Amino acid sequence: MLTRTESEQRIARLQDGLKEKGVDAALFIYPIDIYYFSGTRQNSVLFVPAEGKPRLMVRKSYFRAQGESVIDDTRPFPSSKEFPSLFPPQVKRIGFTFDVAPVQQYQYYARLLPGVEFVDISSLNRELRSVKSKLELERMRESGTRLCGVFKEIPGFLKEGMRELDLAAEFEYRLRKAGGEGYVRMRAYNQELFQGLAVSSGAGNPGFFDGAVTGRGLSNASPHGASTDTIQANVPVLVDYTGVFNGYIVDMTRMFVVGRLAPELERAFATSLQIQQHLAENLKPGAVCEELFAQAAGIAESAGLARNFMGAPGENAKFVGHGVGLELDEFPVLAQGFKSPLQEGQTVAIEPKFVLPGLGVVGIENTFAVAREGGVKLTDLADDIVCV
Amino acid sequence: MLTRTESEQRIARLQDGLKEKGVDAALFIYPIDIYYFSGTRQNSVLFVPAEGKPRLMVRKSYFRAQGESVIDDTRPFPSSKEFPSLFPPQVKRIGFTFDVAPVQQYQYYARLLPGVEFVDISSLNRELRSVKSKLELERMRESGTRLCGVFKEIPGFLKEGMRELDLAAEFEYRLRKAGGEGYVRMRAYNQELFQGLAVSSGAGNPGFFDGAVTGRGLSNASPHGASTDTIQANVPVLVDYTGVFNGYIVDMTRMFVVGRLAPELERAFATSLQIQQHLAENLKPGAVCEELFAQAAGIAESAGLARNFMGAPGENAKFVGHGVGLELDEFPVLAQGFKSPLQEGQTVAIEPKFVLPGLGVVGIENTFAVAREGGVKLTDLADDIVCV
């Protein structure tokens, strides 16, 4: 549960950001943004002036929001007529999340507030959210513990001849019993993920997903994750899953094989571990995101695996780590073009992976917190390939 | 798999709609819209001139899209420089889905195409999609058969004392093994659903979800669906799940109870069946959506259950059925304000439900196709309450 104190701290940081950008207020309409500041994800709109108290206006369910929101001024959504009168006249520039707000919503609020200029505060919002509080880090550690508990059970049910889909079903069943909430929020407009990927011979298929691995999936309509291909001896099995608990996501990958892996795959996996270790050691405040990516790509290149790094040759993803928290695709991103320095308390899923066409996919992924001593692993389970 | 012929028919219907609205072309950026016309859901942009051939421009994965798309002109996404030159100069007004396109995406494309006016074709797009082809109706019937297969197994695992979450996990496990794709697409910007609801004592909680039932869920961050409450004797158990196969969703609800239901609940359930029967009989081309809703509400009122219809008293949802197909919230909607007549081939989930505070929630839901002889049930399983 979000405390009133922590909500106030989050609002205060937002207000500092608004003032710095010369924006008079923020208007949030996206559920998880509202949850972050208020403690409720009911269908609502959150108004935060750059100075003064926030106001939560609830469409549905007001009853439930009253019990969850820590915003003092929580009220039913006003009529369209009343709505403009709730905005102080000094609000001339209002911040809005252009990254996720559909044009129709923007037009609706712009019509309600004539003369007010809407400005994009997507980056500010994502930057604020990227730095986790002590409470959030505890939540994420708890998510990590629960997800690792499910990963530990894999050797008990992974069998040669089962479909990737059967492996997924067994994993997801245990994840759900452990309290997994299932729905994985992503901010990018064209991304979607059903919990994770349990993939083996289908792992090397390129796909729409902004990651190293997409999987073949079950149809062209749902082209990601497990397929009906069967798991065969000596073919790497990559299990890349999220765990969502109390809204907080962690993301991890482990490798399994029935039998043994080819030496090329073993060697590529060792390179994944080497990259992970380098990045974890350097996951400190001040480290520059794109420099970490360049270093990771450099290690892959030294190992003669540049073409295979983070995707099938020619379809390589251009990152090696991504922020994670209430959404799977948070800031920061360890990628070319991200020039910002890491901050203490950010949480990053580091996932060096290699696609070796004809052989399979190997890699590792753990969620880390950025700390002065280097990355603190929140998904605390041995990294080794498990042979069953 | 979408055939080339059917894709051409869909494009032709869209082009008729564009011409009728005086729009020169459409630009789709939303994955499932693109899938509907092209057969691929890879990360792409689809351009459809009001006259002439469509063009699919693929960001990721071009390799995979080549194997899936039935659009002749399928090519890699062009550079920003090249992009405008691909648009014929006579394109002055371009249709865009303002309902789902984020402001940032709109601004991006508007910058690339200066002087072009963007107009909202959300309704046209949804209207076209609402009428299913023979192929789509077969797909949905297949989804119905598979989902019913899982519902049939419920009496085998539903037990007194298990958590709502355990019931959900058992159901979802079997759904996944049956080939369920899991990710349920919704168009509304603030809605999300993790597959469905397995709810009993938590069923009556109001919530954000635009439906009669939301469930308590596992946390304030994920406040829908199963909770950790246990299933108790004589308390109704409502299982409301979607099944997604080949992208096509069906939606159904059945009632279960360990023991017996109170007479008030039995009576409310009988009223649900009565409403369903009335609507199914009248689910014919030409029937007006809002009149069907009014008739349903009238039957509820005659039974003395107006306050309990489609939600907890004071939190009642204002509809009794919704279109379903590639998305869970398609057109048509059986609700006040929807004045359009039904069309043959539309598919509608009809879900009369009653929330009786302190007693529980009962109701029924089936997915029907609109036909001349009245609704054809695509979720072909007995409607009765199952006592275990």
Automatic annotation (TrEMBL), chains A, B:
<protein>
    <submittedName>
        <fullName>Xaa-Pro peptidase family protein</fullName>
    </submittedName>
</protein>
<dbReference type="Pfam" id="PF01321">
    <property type="entry name" value="Creatinase_N"/>
</dbReference>
<dbReference type="Pfam" id="PF00557">
    <property type="entry name" value="Peptidase_M24"/>
</dbReference>
<dbReference type="InterPro" id="IPR050659">
    <property type="entry name" value="Peptidase_M24B"/>
</dbReference>
<feature type="domain" description="Creatinase N-terminal">
    <location>
        <begin position="10"/>
        <end position="131"/>
    </location>
</feature>
<feature type="domain" description="Peptidase M24">
    <location>
        <begin position="138"/>
        <end position="370"/>
    </location>
</feature>
<dbReference type="InterPro" id="IPR000587">
    <property type="entry name" value="Creatinase_N"/>
</dbReference>
<dbReference type="InterPro" id="IPR000994">
    <property type="entry name" value="Pept_M24"/>
</dbReference>
